[in-house]
Amino acid sequence: MHAEPRSERVELPGRATDVLLGEGLFGTLWAALRTRFPAAQRCGLAIDERVASLWPLPPAPADLHVLDLTLPAGEEAKDRDTLARLQDRWIGLRRDEPVVVIGGGAALDVGGFAAATVRRGLPWIAVATTVVAMADASVGGKVAVNHPRGKNLLGTFHPPSLVLSDVATLGTLDARERSAGLAEVYKCARLSDAGLLAVLREGEPQDAAAWIDALHRSVAVKARLVEADERDEGVRRLLNYGHTVGHALERALGNERMRHGEAVAIGMHAAAGLAVARDLMTAAQREEQHADLERLGLPTALPGDVDAVTLHRALGLDKKRTAGANHVLVLPVGAAGARVVDDVTDAELASILP
Amino acid sequence: MHAEPRSERVELPGRATDVLLGEGLFGTLWAALRTRFPAAQRCGLAIDERVASLWPLPPAPADLHVLDLTLPAGEEAKDRDTLARLQDRWIGLRRDEPVVVIGGGAALDVGGFAAATVRRGLPWIAVATTVVAMADASVGGKVAVNHPRGKNLLGTFHPPSLVLSDVATLGTLDARERSAGLAEVYKCARLSDAGLLAVLREGEPQDAAAWIDALHRSVAVKARLVEADERDEGVRRLLNYGHTVGHALERALGNERMRHGEAVAIGMHAAAGLAVARDLMTAAQREEQHADLERLGLPTALPGDVDAVTLHRALGLDKKRTAGANHVLVLPVGAAGARVVDDVTDAELASILP
After folding, report:
1. Contacting residues of A for B80, CB less than 8 Å apart
2. Distance between CA atoms of A115 and A162, rounded to whole angstroms?
3. Is A155 within 8 Å of chain B by CB?
4. Which domain holds residue A182?
């Protein structure tokens, strides 16, 4: 017997996303596609190679011609070469024929970007198979590939019309991947859902129903921020909590060493340091967050061997930066809440590096 | 003494475009950029090589670092290589630092697409230097490059924040380019501006003021359709008048042989044939359009040596196509007006090929 599914709708002008969270949704893909695109004779398909080996897709309907491509596992797929291969594979589709992208955040990023740029936007269905993809990458429409100069520097906004998040697939992730994904769930809780924060205080969700509930609440937080500010110029920036220092750490260490969510956890702990210094939260509240993150299996301290030059450059603390301009940072407020502040000085930013 | 400038605003959710039409606007670029982006320390610049040789830019302000690139002239620029070169050149810009793209429709298409995809969208200023760019490419936000499988197959929507259309630059176009551009102006008039139609009945505009007036009215027609239907799923499709047969002709002949606007003129004459057969317009009204197009220096008859196989395939009249589905076509109605019809049969479509 499967746990009860949940759904959430993200409303953007002319482009809504339905998010469905459940157990066993992987097997319902073709039926869901047929319901939404009854006239489609063809569709595109991109699947992460690791997911393909663990979760064989049910056979496609006989009357649906599938233009499929297997993606390199993980972050390796997020480059211009893979983007061009996907575009070439899907270029013959019409604008009422969807593409399906299956995998974690990286697969959804590159697959969604290809969908966005073929014929000025093919509709797409995201099948999320990691915690970070279910909580973060599938909602909000940001799609991208990496550039030699940095992560996600080439991209656009193109929300999927449907997200299927099958929590059964989380069973084949290793514990470290699940923990890293929970950093994004924790972040959303910390921004505006004290109830979810209390749930996460018990540690990682222990069964499918608990995963569905936590992910659903996290998606709801993100959905409201995205609806209010799709282009990331206002309140959506709250979702950058932990990401300023986090991104810099990823750049300094590389994603082999440090997962995105781990870097974000360290970044949240660092930002909380400045929040205490500015009297936005108490030292006890920061310590509570610290204990929460550790209970979820997340790091809060900087590795001893981090390349300080790269870290400082990524934070704009190197000499090349224009003097005088302040930094923008998201700071936690109280027990649950946050605020974007734009007057962080070089000295303040340097002081919070863990 | 310069002719009076005109302006038009295209309102899309969160992304308005101000269109300024005038004489001598080329020299005002840097001032316009500074007004809109007072804090920018850098900007991007892409300019068509032919335009660069004819219209030297005034020097940029000393406090503005310009990341510039010269584009191959015309359609040759619209490929993935040029797109990647632009992205690489502009990748370091921040989202409040604009790019400027100067040239005809091809330059605006590829430059706008690069702007759309760097950091999920840099703001951009279009400086249009051809009739087709002023009337069509600069309004509506469609940006794209070509793919070996067809024109404009890779692209997205990313309207410029400002369009500067300097009609002085039209003086260095040859007559054939001006005529081809007027096909798009005529099309907009035919859709919903009987007054503009009467103006064009006198032939090509004869001075700067007349060009500004005709282009302004044409832009206004397009702006209202784009505002009502940015994603091209409803009334915006009226702008495809003449384009179904026109695109097929371009594919069959290549753009060296036939300009886009010339193909559209032939396509409008062809569509009018079906409109007469369906009693949507009189034979006399079709003949009037025919005379109008000839007066503007535009062709209406198919060249004798067109590759019929390619033409039929591009129109979906080849055997590969699924039987039963009808074609969508824009048909002119009465003396000025048009309608999207979706029940055009194979036989009807084949019958109107000139």
Report:
1. 84
2. 13
3. yes
4. 176-205+213-352
